[in-house]
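For consistency, the fold was encoded as tokens, as this record shows:
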Amino acid sequence: MGDLSDIRVFLAVAQQRSFTAAARQLSMTPPTVTRSVSALEQSLGVQLLLRTTRQVSLTSAGAVYAARVEPLIRQFDQVRDDLREEQGDVAGLIRINAPLSLGQQLLPDIVSGFRAEHPQVSVSLSLTDRFIDIVSERFDLALRVSEAPRDRSTIWRKVCRVRRILVASPGYLAIFGTPETPDDLSRHGCIAYDEEAISETWELTNGGRTRKAFAGKVLAANNGELIAKLVEDGQGLALLPHFIVGDALARGALKQVLAEWEPPELWLTLYYPPYEKLPMRVARFSDFFERYVTHTRPL
């Protein structure tokens, strides 16, 4: 079957389609990864990977081998973690995905604090504003800021509401004027915050009245901090989470507009694969995370 460590290295290369990326993921050097895969191929007597100067791909034998051993490795790891947890230990790897801005602001302190309490836990962090499939991409946990979850294939846990506000720079408002109603937004540069950097529709409510505004005619981006900088530079208005623009509001670089008009409610949510039972390390991290964002540093 091959040495267990070599199998893990091979699976990392197969997933990343790159020796270099696998080496980064595993905290190894690329030559060590190459030697490990070569040793596995030699012990099996088959070629598992095709290497070119541009990419790495699976051979037919490699694809079959990866499909068969990956579930076994997961089961092996689960048995190991279950035994540890029965002894009261919290250990193992947690693979976490989070939006870029949220992850950069919250996760350094959260992960450092959590590992101080549970040093046997390893953490792998992936930050992206792309909406990822946590099951196929094998994450243990994903942080998301979104409307009410509709995904029935995952487990989710609401943590707290995320406040969003409409902002513009004082300089922009001095030149183009301050919108008095949502209908005025059609005459302004509304910057879209969209996963594919295309467009966004703002739905704003005041009492029983609802108005919609279209954003993205001139500018769109898929990262909140980038949009906040564009707004500070006077490029238009944007609807952004308070945790992204709070500092700029405090120092006067941004101003809130149409404060009486509220966007739809967003939640910070923890998503999990369809576990029958949360692994203890994931459950403990989730509890630590929720305490942090609701008590230590509320959003």
User: Anything to note?
Assistant: The radius of gyration is 23 Å. The first helix runs from residue 4 to 16. The chain has a mean pLDDT of 89. The first strand starts at residue 49 and ends at 51.
